Amino acid sequence: MFSKVLVANRGEIALRVIRACQELGVKTVAVYSEADARAPHVREADEAVLVGPPPSSQSYLVGERLIEVALRTGAQAIHPGYGFLSERAWFARAVRDAGLVFIGPPAEAIDAMGSKTAARQLAISAGVPVVPGTTESVRDADEAIAIAETFGFPVLLKAAAGGGGKGMRIVRAASELADALASAKREAQNAFGDDAVYIEKYIEGPRHVEIQVLADTHGNVLHLGERECSVQRRHQKMIEEAPSVAVSPELRARMGATAVAAARAAGYVNAGTCEFLLDKDGQYYFLEMNTRIQVEHPVTELVMGLDLVQWQIRVAAGEALPFAQKDFAPRGWAMECRITSEDPSNGFLPSTGRIEYLHLPTGPGVRWDGGIESGSEVGLHYDPMLAKLIVHAPTRDLAISRMRRALRELTIDGIETSRSFHLRVMDHPDFQRGDITIQWLEQNLPALTAPATDRESIRLAAIAAALVAHEERRAGSGTATAAVMSDGSTVGHEASRSAHGPSWRDVARRESLRSL
Ligand code: ADP
What we know:
By secondary structure, the chain is an alpha+beta fold. It has 4 domains: 4-103, Rossmann fold; 133-201, ATP-grasp fold, A domain (Dna Ligase, domain 1, 2-Layer Sandwich); 207-449, ATP-grasp fold, B domain (D-amino Acid Aminotransferase, Chain A, domain 1); 454-514, no CATH class.
């Protein structure tokens, strides 16, 4: 096993990797930008090294500097997390050339899966079903129209180098194709420095179902079942669960075998994910392989009972997987909500500022993978995902009620977050039935993101009342307190617990929970 690992990331995933290392008895080196000097991952690591100014292009993305820090601090391996350098083949190669271990797949496997068109070619040659379309980028609109007409509109234009839904355009008629192609190319050029765009049939109303794969250097390739990630906004996942209501044990075995075949064809090692679209008839199509740990890996960990990040590290250190495929069947139901610094009632506009107060949910079956704390500054330099709230319960219904309970316990003051949106999804009958496609969220956006309902107005009023009460109590006139509380005796009880009485935040939190 390694004695020291450098964690080339920030936020929740840096902390996640550091925790995995701590449990394995491995020392950690954190890297950070000037904006993250006080971030939790910096404090939790054994060592931390400043690598540059806030923009990631000058800090977290400067691979050469990260490798130099690893060499200087005596780390033997680099864990890239997700995003940033995690899927850059040149970085994996540079790490290896420096005599270090890249905790992820070989550079060749990243290359093979890195471009969507190359991945499609590889999948086809391995007998993996893909969405009808091209395996090469289209030259111009005329060619694109001719191709589209062979399988019919609507079609989807996709950036070959794509990721995060960028460079994608749905085209419903030939007359729209030229404009859509030009704008997809522009967006792809800006985002990836590569304007290659190819064309796929647009599948109406599918689910996004992905298969977790884990492979070692001894030829073992296993799949760890599926994650359902259909709750998406602008092709970005918001809520994930494992297993999927749409996947039977028989379909799981078939999709799993397909994912294993794709991984073997790419010479894959370490943790990876094959993404599929699953249509209404149970037909599935390979989309792409993500050659890294994914944001949503915890739901698989909870239902399969293993630590994927620790296995990434152990596999990278040369250990053989001690499991057989038959060891893996999902137990219970896990669900994850991405807590982002975005304002759902305002078009998911990014929200910035200082987290004044953070109260985390606890209790049975609740897991919080976060990178924030009270006092954290949330800016615009990095991804808006602050944390993941994950629950595990015996059934899907119980997972939903557990998630609702945990979301209510969660308080993040100072910035807007996606919390209220998630609560509404949990309350939605379609979601409760599991009757969801990748278009569901966009189709139901108004209902899921409308500004404060009456109940929420009551919550705000309760917070204001609690503030006034607290101020009055501090000023010595405790009598007003009971009058504004919905349950004055509880306040009295709280007050006797502490010499100074409850803080206004505690009172406001309790009042707001009660009014929900
Ligand atoms: P990215 O790498 O940018 O995330 P993907 O190929 O994974 O791009 O696609 C992102 C999302 O777009 C998928 O999860 C799915 O919701 C939707 N999507 C992709 N391809 C198709 C398709 N052919 N038909 C319908 N929806 C699609």
